[in-house]
Design a protein that fits this description.
The structure holds two protein chains of two kinds. Chain A is mainly α. Chain A is built from nine helices and no strands. The chains are: A mainly alpha, B alpha/beta. At the A-B interface, helix 2, helix 3, helix 4 and helix 5 of A face strand 4 and helix 3 of B.
Chain lengths: ~210, ~325
C-alpha cells in the first residue's frame, strides 16, 4: 500500500463523510450538539484541498497532512482526537514508501494509543475508542496470522462496525454525551460511527484494487 | 425554523463582520476568526483570552474590551475553536506579562486550548489556564466528562479582567479566576431546543407542556425532562439544585440569564422568584445581571448563576468595564 493508495483511502473517507453527514449529525443531535457531521465534512473537504496542493510521497506524509489539517479545521473534540490519531499513525509509518499489513496495523495501533492518551477514554465508555480498539485488535491478529489483505481488512472493518453498534447500549462516560447520563443509552455514539466509516472506507478501497 | 441568515456556511463570518462594523473598540480578523481590542495588547498587563463555539453571543467576542477580555476566538456554531485560532488570540493578547486562558470545561475546548498553550509555550509566551466548571446538573465524577462551564464564565471574565486591568501579575489573576469559579454554581432549564444552522432542525424535540432540566449551552438534551410549570416552581427546582450543591449564604452575585429566545419580561419575572427564594434562605442579592449573557442561539429557556461574593470580588465586579456586552463605570 503506497502513498497513492492512502490518498485514495482519504478520498473515500471524504466521500463517505459527505454522504453520511446528515446521519452523523442526527446521531450527534440525539446525545450531543448536532455538529459532528458538519465538522467532519468541513475537515475532510479541507484535507482533500490540502492533499491536492501538497507533495505527499509516502503513506506517512499523507496521514501527517491529514492529521495537521484536521487539527486546524475541525475544532471541537473531534479535531484534536482524529488529528492526533492520524499524526500518530503517520509517525509510526515513518518514511517508508509502502506499508504492508503489519505496518498498517502498527500505525492504526499508534493512532489509537494517541486517542486514548489525549482523550483519556477506555473501552466501554461510549466513544470512538469502542470502534477503533476492536478494529486494531482484529487487524493486528489477522496480520500476525498471515491472512490475505482482503480478509484482514474485512475483519478490521467488521470489528469497527460491531464496536460502533455496541456503543448503542452503553452509557456515555466521556464527552458531551456523558452530560446526559442514562439518557445516552439507546443511541449509537457519533464518534464511534464515524471511526467505523473511516475503517470501512479503508477496506472498500483495498477491495477495489488488486493486492 | 426561520433564521435571519444568508446561509449556514457564512453565519459566523457574517456575524463577525457585523461586530466589527458595530464596535470600533474591537478589531476583528475575519480570516483568522479572532476578536481583539482595537488598541492592541496593553503592555505590562496580563492578557485574557477566552473562546469557544459561536452561538453563545455576547459570549465571548462581546466581552472583549477594557476591564474584561483582550481576545476571543469563536469557533463554528457550538464547536470549539482550533489551536491555531487560540494561539493567534494568545499572541494578540500578549502584553509581555503573560496570558490567562479562561477555558469552559468541555472536552473540545479543553483539548484545543491545551494544544494552543503548548504552542504558546514554544514561543515563550507564559500561559496559565483556568477551567470553568460551575454547572451543578452534571455530577463531577469518574463517570462523566466533568461539570460544564456555563454562566460563571461571564463572572470569571469580568472579575479576572478587572484585576488584570489593575496591573496584577498572572498568578494572582489566575487565582482570582479560579476563586470565582469555586464560589459559583449554575443550573439551566430549556423550554425549547435550538436549531444549529447547518443542521436545519431542532437538536431535540420538546412537547408543548415539557421542559428540559439541567441543560448546558450547546443545545444538547439535559439531565431530565419535566412538565411545564409556573415560573415559581421551575425557579424553585433550579435554586434547589444550586442550594443543595453550595448553600446560599451571605451576599450573592446572581445572574438570571436568557438562553436567547426568552423575552426580558419573562426573565424579570424569573428574577423576582429568584430574589424571593434567596431571601427565604437567608441570603441577599448584592449584585445582579438579568438578560442574555451566555446564550444558545434562539433556545427558549434560562439559567441561574450564583456567586458567593467577598468584598474583594464585589469590588472587582464593580470596577469599570467597557465591552459590547457589559459596560459600566466608563
Amino acid at each position: 500500500m503506497d502513498a497513492e493508495f492512502f490518498r485514495a483511502w482519504i478520498a473515500e473517507i471524504a466521500a463517505i463523510v459527505e454522504d453520511q453527514r446528515d446521519h452523523l449529525t442526527q446521531l450527534d443531535a440525539a446525545i450531543g450538539d448536532a455538529d459532528h457531521g458538519t465538522n467532519l465534512s468541513r475537515g475532510f473537504t479541507a484535507v482533500q484541498a490540502a492533499l491536492a496542493q501538497a507533495e505527499t510521497p509516502t503513506p506517512g506524509a499523507v496521514l501527517r497532512l491529514v492529521g495537521t489539517t484536521l487539527i486546524s479545521t475541525v475544532g471541537g473534540a473531534s479535531g484534536p482526537l482524529y488529528g492526533t490519531a492520524f499524526r500518530r499513525a503517520a509517525k509510526a509509518l515513518g518514511d517508508e514508501p509502502e506499508a504492508d499489513l503489519n505496518a498498517l496495523a502498527q500505525a492504526l495501533a499508534a493512532g489509537l494509543a494517541g486517542v486514548v492518551k489525549l482523550g483519556a477514554a477506555s473501552e466501554g465508555e461510549k466513544t470512538m475508542v469502542d470502534a477503533l480498539a476492536p478494529a486494531v485488535t482484529a487487524l493486528t491478529k489477522a496480520a500476525a496470522d498471515g491472512a490475505a489483505r482482503a480478509d484482514a481488512l474485512d475483519a478490521m472493518a467488521d470489528a469497527a462496525v460491531a464496536g460502533a453498534r455496541a456503543t448503542t447500549e452503553m452509557e456515555a462516560l466521556k464527552g458531551r454525551a456523558s452530560y446526559l447520563g442514562p439518557r445516552s443509552v439507546g443511541h449509537e455514539d457519533p464518534g464511534a460511527a464515524s471511526s467505523a466509516l473511516m475503517l470501512c472506507a479503508l477496506r472498500d478501497v483495498a477491495a477495489r484494487r488488486a493486492p | 425554523m426561520k433564521k435571519l441568515i444568508n446561509s449556514p456556511e457564512t453565519v459566523v463570518t457574517d456575524a463577525l463582520a457585523g461586530m466589527a462594523a458595530a464596535h470600533p473598540s474591537l478589531s476583528v480578523d475575519l480570516d483568522g476568526k479572532i476578536i481583539t481590542r482595537a488598541g492592541g495588547p496593553v503592555p505590562g498587563k496580563v492578557g485574557l483570552v477566552s473562546g469557544g463555539g459561536s452561538g453563545h453571543e455576547p459570549l465571548h467576542g462581546g466581552y472583549v474590551g477594557y476591564g474584561m477580555l483582550d481576545a476571543a476566538c469563536p469557533g463554528e456554531v457550538f464547536t470549539s475553536p482550533v489551536p491555531d485560532q487560540v494561539l493567534a488570540a494568545t499572541r494578540a493578547a500578549n502584553g509581555g506579562a503573560g496570558v490567562l486562558h479562561i477555558v469552559k470545561n468541555y472536552t473540545g475546548d479543553v483539548l484545543n486550548f491545551r494544544m494552543a498553550a503548548e504552542l504558546a509555550d514554544d514561543e515563550d509566551i507564559e500561559v496559565e489556564s483556568v477551567v470553568v466548571n460551575d454547572d451543578v446538573a452534571v455530577r463531577d465524577s469518574l463517570y462523566t466528562a466533568g461539570r460544564r462551564g456555563v454562566g460563571a464564565t461571564v463572572f470569571v471574565e469580568k472579575i479576572a479582567g478587572a484585576l488584570a486591568e489593575r496591573g496584577a501579575p498572572l498568578a494572582e489573576v489566575a487565582a482570582v479566576a479560579a476563586e470565582v469559579n469555586e464560589r459559583s454554581r449554575s443550573f439551566g432549564v430549556a423550554l425549547t431546543s435550538c436549531t444549529v444552522p447547518a443542521a436545519g432542525k431542532p437538536t431535540f424535540d420538546l412537547a408543548e407542556q415539557e421542559i428540559e432540566l439541567g441543560i448546558g449551552i450547546h443545545g444538547e438534551p439535559g439531565r431530565t425532562r419535566g412538565p411545564l410549570q409556573p415560573a415559581r416552581d421551575i425557579v424553585a427546582t433550579v435554586m434547589d439544585a444550586i442550594h443543595a450543591d453550595l448553600p446560599l449564604a451571605g451576599e450573592l452575585l446572581v445572574m438570571v440569564n436568557g438562553m436567547g429566545g426568552t423575552p426580558l419580561i419573562e426573565l424579570y419575572g424569573a428574577f423576582s422568584e429568584v430574589s424571593r427564594y434567596v431571601g427565604d434562605h437567608g441570603a441577599r442579592i448584592g449584585r445582579n445581571l438579568v438578560g442574555n449573557y451566555i446564550t444558545s442561539l434562539e433556545m427558549q429557556g434560562f439559567s441561574v448563576t450564583v456567586c458567593q461574593l467577598t468584598e474583594t470580588l464585589r469590588d472587582l465586579w464593580d470596577a469599570p468595564v467597557d465591552t459590547p456586552g457589559l459596560r459600566w463605570g466608563r
